[in-house]
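Margin note from the TA: students keep mixing up input and output lines. Inputs are the sequences; the output is the structure of the whole complex. Example:
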Amino acid sequence: MTGSGRTERTVDVLIVGAGPAGLAAGAELAAAGAGRVEILERDQEAGGIPRHCRHGGFGGRLTRGGTSGPAYARQSVAAAVRAGADLRTGVGVTGWAGPLTVETTGPTGLEQITAKAVVLATGARERPRSARLIPGSRPPGVYTTGELQQAVHRYGQRIGTRAVVVGDEPVAHAAVAALRAAGVRIVAMVTDQPAAPVRVRRSVPLLTGATVTGIEGRTRLTGVTLRRTDGRTTTLHCDTVVLTGDFVPDHELARRAGIVLDSGTRGPAHDAAYRTSRPGVFAAGNLLHAVEPAGVAADEGRAVAVSVLHRLAGTDEPAGEGRPLVADAPLRWIAPNVTGPDAATRPAGDRFVLRTARRLALPLLVVSQGRRELHRQRLLLPAVPGRPLHLAAGWLDRVDPEGPAVHISAS
Amino acid sequence: MTVTITTAGRLPGAGGPEGTYDVTVVGAGVVGAAIARELARYRLRTALVEASDDIGNGTSKANTAILHTGFDAVPGSLEARLVREGRGLLAAYAEETGIPVERTGALLVAWDTDQLAVLPELLAKAERNGYDAARLIGADELRAREPHLGPGALGALEIPDESVICPWTTPLAFATQAVRAGVHLHLNCRVTDIGSAPHGHTVRTSRGPLRTRYLVNAAGLYADEIDRLLGHDVFTVTPRRGQLIVFDKLARDLVRHILLPVPTSAGKGVLVAPTVFGNVLLGPTSEDLDDRTATGSTADGLDLLREQGRRIMPALVDEEVTAVYAGLRAATGQEDYRIQDHPGRRYVAVGGIRSTGLTASMAIAVHVTALLAGTGLELGPPHGLPPITMPNLGEAVPRPYRRADLIARDPAYGTLVCHCEYVTLGEIRDALDSTVPPQSLDGLRRRTRARGGRCQGFHCGAAVRALFEEARP
């Protein structure tokens, strides 16, 4: 016990967050005999975001065609537990007490847990209305997809009758599905992006080039105001607004540790071994790139396990040697975003993931370090905001470890 | 202890003479609740009536949450005296009841030579207001005290006793103690008309009539309307909107003091202040409006705040925004409170309580009670109020999630529900079961902070709503 009534414990690997990345890391590490592998989940139930996603397509490669989110979450939990990871739900990490020591709160009391390696897998959230600085009054009825899905699927709560969905990324379609399940009519989907060159048949009207400029209604939501690119303003009458996408990493623990963040992703800066700037602290999943599908997060969980095993065995490279990878505009970010640790280590899937701020038709990606070009690659598909584009990782062994930052540009 | 709080239906006991209240306070903001609490010391039948569904639900919930010293008040004004006295009363009361307060001190920062030249005048004014701990500091000391301040700050006036306080717990403490001491609280009870006779008033409300011998008007933004119902035309409330931005807790380490602007002819300017919850506030704007319900934010207002915030503290505006809100201050065109007794009418109007009202609330209550006595109300001897301890929402002392002793007694205090704000099941349960329970999710947020954090309910919103709906079907 510490002076403040905390029980002190030690484990070999501590994983924070039992979503797809944390569970996959835990399963892999426990199976590899990493010793005591403990996964902490602050929610009462493990599985992460997929628990609330009723749509299919989860774990496609493992299950041939995919399964629903809740089934995927159950399978991921079962795999981690079966492998021997110690999964503890309802235990929240509230801060750090040392470089590899965290403080926790749970119904059984306060703890201080020290590990040989810590994996942060704390995921991401959609930015709510306030963070998007959407002006207007503050009636109830404004949701993020995350809250909506839980309200509908987990609690069966009453939502409303007419909804506007903001965003047109895949998550927006999940919001539409949840609204329909709750019997809500969808007035429109709106996006500030321009219309796509190819028209897609849609079951919901899509307003493109429309920015949300306000929420109306006092005790109840009555409408949402939009400004179109041509300057016209419109009010859509509705009693529910769902703000979808615009994910940001839940990086509080990383920040509280003083871990260096990548200015593009706002998640921890990390190399292909998923090492952060703090030795012994690793990161995986959507904390690093908000957001990729659950399967990508799980792949990273498995990849980070390999690096953690090196750390436990003392066969890892010294940290802090990598060069920053910088995504130049209109690219928004790249992950991983630090080079290293060595020529042999490649990111999960042997590729980098990137985002663009605007649509690019068949872009040419160029990787350069100073004046030296390391790689160029023409993408065979258009790059679209909110969707991933990928860059092969084969050029990593050509990076000069003493050289300047590596830039990735698109044209 | 019989607690009477009604939220719907006809007001009880409106019929016969036994149903007549001695005093009725209109408006359960921080001022009305403080007055009701003060009256609860006496053997009186007191009612506190409120148009909305919660106490502290208007201007009281949306201000800058500063416990002022009154250093910059107009010397000799009623406001100056009541702020000075109220500060002492509220600081002691907060200590006694557990209302979160943090004595951060304030720095009034000069950004140009004109502002710098004004600082000695403000120092002299503080001394005229009986506050002698203020002092001038130079640019180097200022930079050392606030390393994240933007470039160009030339110096500051330090006011070491300016503090931040919880704006939600304060009126809740007043109302809780008042109703426990026998004051009747009637919510959702809008006053529509007042008929006066020599022996008292018949107050018509949205929930039927109420008879009262004495009347106190603490209706805030609507104080002039209530005043007119009694035939007076003394002042007009012009709502002055203040929009504010609340930044993420990860910004809290950027700022150490309340950073005040130097008041100029263009207005009081924008401040940056820590909150007791561990966030950072930026605001307020100052917009004179006609609409007393215009508590919305605007794109222009938020742009202006971010522009000014970028100058004061550039790193601040790069942090995530947790909340945006707007409050309306009850300006009356006079640089002082307008507290007026009408002895012949058994009536006291409490108008024009500006942004200092939170600080002054307890002194206003003492002042108004004395005025009521002066108009003929027999107070009798005061008796002690039942002691209360409020739930701690502040970061200065450990909250339940950090308390091994509480969790050992009841695991619900170790069961986290709202992860951004570390709010536990035990605290939510306690709030739903409290003397003055919340009537809405926003009311629950003001009592616990649940779903008030950076995710605004993305993670916990549905779970918190389920707990609320289970308790209050």
